Amino acid sequence: MNRSLGEWARSGKWRIVAGWTLAALLVLVVAVYAVRALRQESGPVRLAVYGFSTQEEAFTQGIFPAFEKKWEGETGRDLTLEGVFGASGTLAGQINLGAPADIAVFSNAEHVNWLKVGGRVKRDSEPVIFGCTPIVIAVRPGNPMQIASYADLARPGIVLLHASPRSSGAGEWGVLAEYGSAYLPTQDQASGKAQLQSIWRNVRVMPASARAAMSLFDLGAGDALVTYEQDTLLAQQSGADLELVTPPRTIVAQHAAVIVDDNLARAEQPAAVAFLSFLVSPDGQEILAGYHLRPASCKSEGFAALVEPFSVDQLGGWSKAYEELVEDVWQTSIEPSLTLEPVP
After folding, report:
1. Rounded to an integer, what distance in angstroms lies between the CA atom of residue 313 and that of residue 319?
2. Residue ranges of the domains in the chain?
3. Most C-beta atoms within 10 A of its C-beta, which of 9, 181, 237, 286?
4. Does residue 295 carry a pLDDT above 70?
5. What's the whole-model pTM score?
């Protein structure tokens, strides 16, 4: 028997058997992974969407159910969209620290840049601009302080609410609006900075987000609030007793959405890509317009016309504007001298 085994080994036939055995094992392994991948790509999908505070109603009541229905009808796969909402800058920081966002919906493109620096989003990824809204001033009924422009916010005696530029995209957009409205007519940086500093002498309450600021204003805090047109109209629709003043020269905020590449599983990729496409589709844009968000094109059909709107590009783009205005002027020169009341 040993001789037969030795002869078989010397014949080299064992190599053929071993080869076929190894091939069978490889086929089995590939089949297992193929079945697993097929299950993942045909099974239910869950996406975590982190969005800035003023989009909560528009997304949870409008966008999410409409897209879930569309996706499930086209693919036969169950889809669950879960929303986490807060101040845009705060959310960007949380995602960089590991929060499990699959899609980020930010108030501005600068917060997308933060995720690129943090390695959460690919460097060559382009955010989807899904909507626009001008920065405006919410005032008390009848406008008792007679506020018509950003320059009026610098008058003595006005108590101003403003979302924090450290955490809120609305706060950052507000800084750009207050500076740009004085700077752009003359291209005089000193005039822009002087107006910005004068306005902020009247800021007494500085909540973390635009939605928190609107809630406090609705409760009676302050004489005026710098915020989004969209959120002011939503507040009025909900019964808030306030009026909207659109300064003749104001910035138009552009909102951005992006896939968080570092978190997104391969099986979730098609749904995430389709979600971003849905935001800018006719159906998605119609839903967002129903929540008072202007279209991605920033055209004003169906909305009040703007007198002299401007964009962040006229201030050098977000990276330049953030560094020079938010960091160098607001954080360095203005924030340390603020006299704030406690936020309830």
Report:
1. 10
2. 2-40, 44-131+255-289, 133-253+304-337
3. 181
4. yes
5. 0.87
